[in-house]
Amino acid sequence: MKNHWVREHFAAGQAIFQEGDIGQDAYLIEHGKVRITSRRGDEDRLLATINPGDMFGEIALIDKMTRTASAIADEDVTLIRISRDLVVSKLKNADPLLSHILQIIVDRYREALGASKKSEESSPEDGLHRLREYAVNQIQIAQNLSDALANGEFELHYQPVVYLEDGRLGGFEALIRWNQPKLGFVSPLGFIGVAEDSGLIVPIGRWVLKTALSALTQFQAAMDHSHPGQSALFMSINVSARQLQEFGEIDELASLIRNSGIDPARIKLEVTESALIEHPETAVLALRQLKELGVLLAIDDFGTGYSSLSYLSMFPLDTLKIDQSFVFTLQENEGSRRITRAIAGLARDLGMNCIAEGIENSGDIAILREMDCEFGQGYHFSKPLPHASVLKYIEARGAGQTGH
Ligand code: C2E
Ligand code: CA
Ligand code: CA
């Protein structure tokens, strides 16, 4: 059982582990003494003799690292073996802030270990200083993040998604914005990771879904008012891996969707490719459960996550979202064009549609249209807009406006 600590006995002289072994356990001494030795040429040098209550081999809790020393029972010993998996699972269930701070310290330790190996040429001071700054920044974000929802510091902006064929408005993608009184504007790239690590993404994600769905109702009303007879708008909402894994969370999201009264076929949930690959089994179950409601599912940042094609068929997907990195370089890079064409073709062959995001100029549109990519999104059409600006944007668009 890896996910539990176990008590182990070693007789005097017996090796607990040897230098060079790959380790993933740390040991806590309950009874007896342990010798830590390191090989120098032909002889074993004694580094330390350690006592009950001491721990050794703890670097393995951070990474599956090669043991840098041997541990030998100096007399009959009783040890408590602690596996890396156990520590990770305990951390996941700990208080989010505590768990986050611990993870930062562990990351710092890990990077410091990596840094010290190369420390001869570069200044270790600088590396450590940067690590410290980074850790402090992350802790500040984590601390402030836990109050942000209650204080109403989040806002959603909405970026239009258009039909490339004729520039008609298809829908919007909801993108979160955080205005923190002390830290100022914090980009989602700077805090979504922290929110995921700490588990706060779960309540934040619920708020995003609820807010975006209520906005969709208002945008649709504005659309019906200014341009009656146009097809219904959709709303794309980003869902993080952590939300899919959290027990019971899909039921929560499902009831938010049902209570919104919106036709689920107008709700598109975006999950990144990497989120699907990391825990495919739970992701498949979660996405199937969501699909049963009738929502649309999209893979975000497609082409960057190295998923195998056989995975794709496991998931009940409707849309592939071509990553911006390919779209940005569409005009000058033949490789990007090939990849984009292949993704658009793959989407078509699997009965899905595709969205190209990061369209910054009109030159991209012709290329993407020719590849039969249905939807486009990017600064060329519009940056993400605050709620009130969306209402003006809808009103200002002539019915059937091409937007090109
Ligand atoms: P994403 O889902 O891939 O969102 C697209 C990002 O590209 C957005 O950045 C958008 O503002 C930006 N973008 C769109 N068009 C262009 C363009 O033409 N040029 C350039 N340079 N950028 C463009 P943003 O809003 O900063 O969001 C960054 C990431 O944060 C998102 O990437 C998504 O992964 C995450 N995120 C944002 N909102 C949420 C949310 O509500 N929940 C979750 N879980 N993640 C979110
Ligand atoms: Ca997205
Ligand atoms: Ca994306």
| Order of strands, widest sheet | 9-10-12-13-14-15-16-17
Structural class: alpha/beta
Bound small-molecule species: ligand C2E, calcium ion
Low-confidence segments, given as residue ranges, are 116-129
Number of strands: 18
Q: Which whole number gives the mean pLDDT?
A: 87
Overall form: elongated
Determine the number of helices (DSSP H or I, runs of at least 4 residues). Answer: 14
Main pleated sheet: 8 strands, mixed, barrel
Q: What level of helicity do the residues show? A: 40-55%
Straight-line distance between termini = 61 Å
Radius of gyration: 26 Å
What share of residues are in beta strands? 15-25%
Give a brief outline of the structure.
Helices cover 44% and strands 25% of the residues.
Structural topology:
Blueprint: E1 6-10, E2 15-17, E3 25-31, E4 34-40, E5 43-50, E6 55-56, E7 70-73, E8 77-83, H1 84-93, H2 96-117, H3 124-148, E9 154-163, E10 169-180, E11 184-186, H4 188-198, H5 201-226, E12 234-238, H6 241-245, H7 249-260, E13 267-272, H8 273-278, H9 280-293, E14 296-302, H10 309-314, E15 319-322, H11 324-328, H12 334-349, E16 353-357, H13 362-370, E17 375-377, E18 385-386, H14 387-396
Helix pairs in contact: 2-3, 3-4, 5-7, 5-14
The structure holds ligand C2E and calcium ion (2 copies).
